[in-house]
């Protein structure tokens, strides 16, 4: 625990060298408001995330950066895999998210994690001896207006030959096994809202190309439908639509009547029907390498 506090002090002492933070581009809930959705997301994605990291060669003694770490759902796994001789740098632009991530690390008794509050778009000075063997991101680039700028910043963090692992979605693939009135309108409105904010909620299918254009080599992309049960669908829709519906309305992309319907749309899902499922998006798992 004392080591964790020491690392936090180190991070805070560097803030004077961090450029002024840009206004957050993150659309979804933060802190306690967004915690339930991120925990559900972790249950959906963790197995594939771990497989991707194993393919990247995650092992004892490495330095790993978790950029856009959110409330830290992957930090315990990463910290335990690199062990006491390795180190994890957990980065997020949100103080609320980092507060929860620090609490998670402390609860797990982790002493090999340093937390840094900053945006990948404006990383500033980096800690000494922090060059990464692996940089891990999950659903980060969909929230960025300039993914190539972020990828070039990540190249600077990686050691020669280091690996990037990232997971991104194609929002346009959202669908249900049975018709649910309004889901296609909500899906399409979210994609339009992203465009207004210069963000691409379908970026997953483009990440292989973007990584190559940004200077990475040996880029590999794997895709998998994110399939949810009726109960999982209901809970995720309730949380995510609750976070975003009013923002869509404010942007003029939906009527009040549509928004009111979206907010109760999860109640239309047949929870007792085991044949029902939804596709919450097509997930792309990207593995890329910095040149030696």
Give your account of this protein's structure.
- With 292 residues, the protein is α/β, with parallel strands linked by helices.
- It has one domain (2-172, 200-226, 282-289): Rossmann fold, CATH 3.40.50.150.
- Helix content is 41%, strand content 22%.
- The radius of gyration is 19 Å and the shape is globular.
- Residues 1-23 have low confidence and may be disordered.
CATH homologous superfamily title: Vaccinia Virus protein VP39
C-alpha geometry: globular
Low-pLDDT segments: 1-23
Our count of helices gives 9
The span between the termini is 36 Å
Strand-and-helix sequence, N→C? HHEHEHEEHEEHHEHHE
Structural Rg: 19 Å
Secondary-structure content class: alpha/beta
CATH topology: Rossmann fold
Beta-strand portion reads 15-25%
Annotation, overall tally of beta strands: 8
Mean pLDDT: 88
A few lines on this structure:
The protein contains 9 helices and 8 strands.
Helices and strands, with pairings:
Blueprint: H1 2-13, H2 31-55, E1 63-67, H3 75-82, E2 87-92, H4 95-107, E3 113-117, E4 132-138, H5 147-157, E5 158-170, E6 175-176, H6 183-196, H7 207-213, E7 217-229, H8 230-250, H9 256-264, E8 277-289
Parallel strand pairs: 1-2, 1-4, 2-3, 4-5
Antiparallel strand pairs: 5-8, 6-8, 7-8
Helix pairs in contact: 2-8, 6-8, 8-9
């Amino acid at each position: 625990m004392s080591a964790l506090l020491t690392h936090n002090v180190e991070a805070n002492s560097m803030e004077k060298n961090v450029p002024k933070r840009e206004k957050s581009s993150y659309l979804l809930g933060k802190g306690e408001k967004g915690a339930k959705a991120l925990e559900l997301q972790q249950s959906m994605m963790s197995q594939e995330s771990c497989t991707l990291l194993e393919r990247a060669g995650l092992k004892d003694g490495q330095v790993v950066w978790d950029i856009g770490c959110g409330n830290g759902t992957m930090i315990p796994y990463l910290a335990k895999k690199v062990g006491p001789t390795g180190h994890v740098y957990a980065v997020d632009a949100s103080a609320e998210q980092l507060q929860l991530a620090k609490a998670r690390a402390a609860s797990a008794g982790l002493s090999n994690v340093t937390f840094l509050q900053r945006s990948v778009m404006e990383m500033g000075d980096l800690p000494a001896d922090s060059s990464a063997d692996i940089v891990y991101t999950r659903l980060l680039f969909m929230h960025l207006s300039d993914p190539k700028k972020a990828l070039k910043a990540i190249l600077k963090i990686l050691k020669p030959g280091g690996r990037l692992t990232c997971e991104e979605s194609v929002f346009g693939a959202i669908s249900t096994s049975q018709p649910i009135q309004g889901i296609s309108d909500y899906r399409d409105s979210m994609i339009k809202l992203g465009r207004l904010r210069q963000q691409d909620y379908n970026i997953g299918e483009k990440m292989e190309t973007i990584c190559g254009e940004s200077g990475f080599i040996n880029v590999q992309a794997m895709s998998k439908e994110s399939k949810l049960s009726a109960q999982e669908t209901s809970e995720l829709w309730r949380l995510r639509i609750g976070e975003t519906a009013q923002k869509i309305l404010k942007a003029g992309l939906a009527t009040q009547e549509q928004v009111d319907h979206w907010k109760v749309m999860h109640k239309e899902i047949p929870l007792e029907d085991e044949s029902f499922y939804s596709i919450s998006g097509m997930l792309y798992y990207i593995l890329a390498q910095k040149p030696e």
